[in-house]
Specification:
It is a single chain. The protein is of the alpha+beta class. It folds into 2 domains: 200 residues, Aminopeptidase; 149 residues, Aminopeptidase (3-Layer(aba) Sandwich). 39% of the residues lie in helices and 27% in strands. The chain has 13 helices and 13 strands. A hairpin with a 3-residue loop joins strand 3 and strand 4.
């Protein structure tokens, strides 16, 4: 077998030339992230990495240009000193490791991947906000496709999986009487306020869906996220990226965008997509003025009923951290992790092993500067979401 060509795409303009082979690999790869399609990887690059170097590392067949593997990476520095490569992933867009063809076995890919990652010249890789069920990460690690690498797994949080059933009655069969009464009472209270209904904007025109999305951004801005500036509307890159998610996934039929409306006004929304029979709920929020009516729970019940009726999905990926509210709907879960990988050599392996200590040291240093109580190294290590 001839060696695969190592592809290093170092600009967004060059990446546009790879749209067809990228999306062919995307359709082949067994992952449920619709955000891994070419248009949205490009949108992530433009929105979040316009101010730093980034590239796509890939392997391709020399005769046809067909992509066999592709990994989007941005360049960062540990403690502003040690360079490392990080996947296209942040709290706004979680978990893209890359794409890897299932048709190529480990024996063929291992030496080629080793050569490709060595070509980066980076001592470390970080795959951030990655599901422990991610098929690409699982293959790379369990099939030893990165031989000699030192891997450190950092648990970030648990994510709920809402497993769907054949019917709504089957779905609620094991609910307690109190749980059923809660949903029924919340619906009745909304009905007392007027006419409420769920609207599926992915079935409307693109222009109508865009207009509805702008209204939903106003809903989030009125809540606690708007107060602390963490809402999408206050974050220009995030807003740019989500606008592109809607624009590109609506025409493909993968968008899943619902609102709960009361007297014609949206009071809650669920924005996400459907890919490979998994419904991913990227963003949810509700109008705080209607919090006592539990609009998020009412909408979630209607969304689940719609997905069951359409027989479109097997489960819902709730994406965010499992909490008291969404845990009531989730029968299973997965772990969201950070994978810190030393590619080769004693220095990179030592850096990975020492990263927890560096994170703790940085946290202590920052607290000493601010005059707050010092945090013990053990406690600081638990703050896994903090990047050193």
């Amino acid at each position: 077998m001839n060696d695969l060509d190592i592809i290093r795409i170092k600009s967004q303009q060059e990446f546009q030339l790879y749209q067809k082979p990228w999306d062919q690999l995307y359709q082949e790869c067994p992952q449920h992230q619709a955000t891994a399609r070419h248009a949205l990887v490009s949108a992530y690059w433009a929105a979040f990495l316009s101010d730093r170097p980034a590239e796509i590392l890939g392997l391709a067949l020399p005769d046809t240009g067909e992509l066999v593997a592709a990994f989007p990476l941005g360049w960062h520095k540990l403690m502003r000193l040690v360079p490392y490569a990080k996947n296209f992933s942040n709290p706004w867009a979680l978990g893209l490791v890359g794409l890897l063809s299932p048709r190529w076995d480990a024996q063929k890919l291992q030496p080629q991947l080793r050569t490709a990652f060595a070509a980066l010249g980076q001592p470390m890789l970080t795959w951030d906000f990655v599901s422990d069920e991610n098929p690409v990460a699982q293959r790379l690690l369990t099939e030893d496709l990165l031989p000699g690498a030192t891997v450190r797994r950092v648990d970030l949080f648990t994510v709920g999986k809402t497993m769907l059933k054949a019917t709504w009655d089957d779905f609620i069969a094991d609910w307690s009487k109190n749980r059923r009464r809660f949903i029924r009472r919340a619906s009745e209270q909304l009905r007392e306020r007027g006419d409420y209904r769920m609207v599926a904007w992915h079935n409307a025109s693109l222009a109508e869906a865009k207009s509805a999305w702008q209204a939903c951004l106003q809903i989030e801005s009125r809540g606690w996220k708007g107060q602390d500036g963490s809402d999408i509307g206050s974050n220009s890159p995030a807003r740019q990226y989500y606008d592109e998610v809607l624009r590109h996934l609506h025409p493909t039929g993968e968008l899943r965008f619902y609102t709960l409306e009361l007297n014609g006004q949206p009071i809650a929304y669920d924005f996400g997509y459907l890919h490979r029979r998994v419904a991913t709920s990227l963003k949810v929020s509700y109008d705080p003025d209607f919090a006592t009516y539990s609009p998020g729970h009412v909408l979630n019940s209607l969304v689940i009923q719609d997905l069951i009726q359409q027989q479109e999905a097997e489960w819902i990926d709730t994406v965010g951290e499992l909490n008291e509210a969404n845990s009531k709907w989730c029968g299973e879960s997965y772990r969201c992790q950070r994978l810190e990988i030393g590619l080769a050599g004693g220095w990179s392996q030592h850096a990975v092993k020492s990263r927890a200590w560096l994170r703790a040291w940085k946290r202590q240093w920052e607290q000493r500067r601010s005059g707050t109580t010092q945090t013990t190294p053990a406690a600081a290590q638990g703050d896994a979401a903090q990047e050193p």
